[in-house]
Structures are given as C-alpha cells and as structure tokens.
Amino acid sequence: MTPDPGTPGQTAPGQPAQAAPALDVAGLCVDVDTPAGRIRLLDDVSLTVRPGERLAVVGESGSGKSVMARSILRLGDTYRTTGSIKVAGTEVTRLSERQMSRLRGSTVAMVFQDPLGALNPLQTIGEQVAEPLRVRGTGRQEAERAAAAILEELGVARAAERMKAYPHEFSGGMRQRVVLAMALIAEPQLLIADEPTTALDVRVQEQVIDLLHEVSTERNLAVILITHDLGIVAGFADRVAVMYAGRKIQDDDAGRLFREPAHPYARGLIEAVPRIDHRIEHLVGIPGVPPHPGARPSGCAYHPRCPFRMDICEVEVPAERPLPSGGTVACHLFALEGNAS
C-alpha cells in the first residue's frame, strides 16, 4: 500500500526515493441516490498506475469504467464516494473544490469521448487550447504560443493559422487532437482518455491511439484508456483492468491477458473479438446482458452468464486473488487449487 505523502518510505540510504504512483485507488465505492433508493455504481475498486504506464480499462457499457474516471477527477456532483484516491501522492478526496480545480489539468487531465461536445462552439480553437494556461495566470501571448506549439506537435498542420478556426471547421479526428492538446498543455502526469475513438472511423481511430502512445512515451505520461473495444487495446496497453458490474474482476499484463485470460468474463470478451493471427469460423458471444446497477444478482454478479458457475458463485462475492503472472483475478474458480483448470 502506498504511504501517505510525507510518510517516510523504505528507501535504503543513498538510494533515490521512488516516485509516487501516478494513481493509487484503494477500496473505492461510489453510490448515487435515486427515487428508487441508493444504488452502488462502483464497489471496492483498487487500482495502481505507475508513472509512464498505459492501462486499459475494459468492459461492457454499465461496468463502471466512466464512473471510476469521473470519480478520480471528482466530476460526479451526485456521487457519494468512499475510499482513497491518490493522484501523484495527493489524496484528492480531502481537497477543497478550489484545490481540486488546480489539480485538474496540471496533474491529471481527461479526454472525453465526444470531442465536439467537449468544445465550445462559440470560441476559437486557439482560445480553448490556451485556456488551461490562462486560468493559471499565464499571459495571453505566452499561452497562445504554447497552444500553437502543442497543436503542431499533435499533428495539426498550420497550427498558428488554424487556431483562429472554430470547432465545426475541424474533422472528428482533428477535434480529438484539439481536445488532447487542451488536456496536455499544462503537462499533467496522468491522462484519462474516456472512449476517445468513439464515432471515429477505423483509420482515424488508429491515428488517435498511435498519438496517445507517442505522447505517453515522449512525456513519460501515465495513461488510462477507457474503452469497450478490445481491438484497440492490444497494441497500446501495458496492462488491462477488466470491469464488470461495478467491480474490477481481472487486472493483468496485456499480453498475458490476451493469451491466457483468467476470468471467464475476460475470456468471453476476448473470444468475441475477430483475430487476424488465425481463422475463426464463428465468433463466440457472451449470452445475456449485464445487470442494471440497481438489480445486480447476489454473489458474483457474472454468475447468471457464466458457463463455469458453482453454487458458491450465487451467494458469495469473490475476493481478488493473486495470479502466478503477477496480476489479480476475482473468481471462485481460483480458490480451487489456485487455477481455473
């Protein structure tokens, strides 16, 4: 467990101190009040992301991926949050809204799935990209120079000229580059990209993912990529966290997870993805649908859809267990002889 900021660590004399994780989430629960009563959206999620690491968070709609992202930035006004969220060693749950506003952008930033919706149609591209610096006190000319430089870096041709354009004058792929420039201009340590390739064609999707990979490598930037599309994950992520019904059910090295998925749900997701390395006559889908957050079954929420369910799955929520690979899995199968065979 990561020590609190200021707590002496275990570093040996003469050795450099180890950098705090870019993100350290422990026991995160998120509830929301509805006319039907309080509903738990996220249940006991723990997650660590190291500086420069690329983590993909995958799962079907309603699994809790975006709720987790918004909780990290404290963007859910109606959320009731418990647990710990540390960004670069700072416990964000204890910050005032003013302190949190300073942290957003400068330490952690987010790219939303709808770039057109994230941009103000009445402001020029240049004004919007420069704004994160302007609100921190940077002068107009310096902020505009920085905006032009980062747009150029992200592949926007004639950036200084196009800063005078408005969002509707850019294509979907170019708008995503603009939103990414807004997120990166204040040089955060952690970037959260929430479905950044939604509604883009396959060619532009590849360009956006390549760009995320490039800026992560060049800036030693930790990235959390939230997606339901496993097809874009394999070449990007160092690690994959699989979410289902508000819980993290597997967390493992990306290569190992694709080769040997441990949790039955992770296995089902991967078997439903077309492969280019061998021929598959028929893709195998996962039967059923994810449960509504207000009507999750008892025990393991996946058990109604799981081909390996046992009696215990219906009554007891599985704890996270270590895998030989170094990852973790939350599945009762792994209480039996430590494996799913």
UniProtKB/TrEMBL annotation:
It is found in: Cell membrane. SUPFAM superfamilies: P-loop containing nucleoside triphosphate hydrolases. InterPro entries: AAA+_ATPase, ABC_Ni/Peptide_Import, ABC_transporter-like_ATP-bd, ABC_transporter-like_CS, Oligopep_ABC_C, P-loop_NTPase. Coiled coil: none annotated. GO terms for molecular function: ATP binding. Residues 23-270 form the ABC transporter domain. Transmembrane segments: none annotated. Gene3D superfamilies: P-loop containing nucleotide triphosphate hydrolases. Keywords: ATP-binding, Cell membrane, Membrane, Nucleotide-binding, Transport. The keyword Mitochondrion does not apply. SMART domains: AAA. Its main location: membrane. It is a peripheral membrane protein. Pfam families: ABC_tran (PF00005), oligo_HPY (PF08352). The keyword ATP-binding applies. Belongs to the ABC transporter superfamily. This is ABC transporter ATP-binding protein. It comes from Arthrobacter horti.
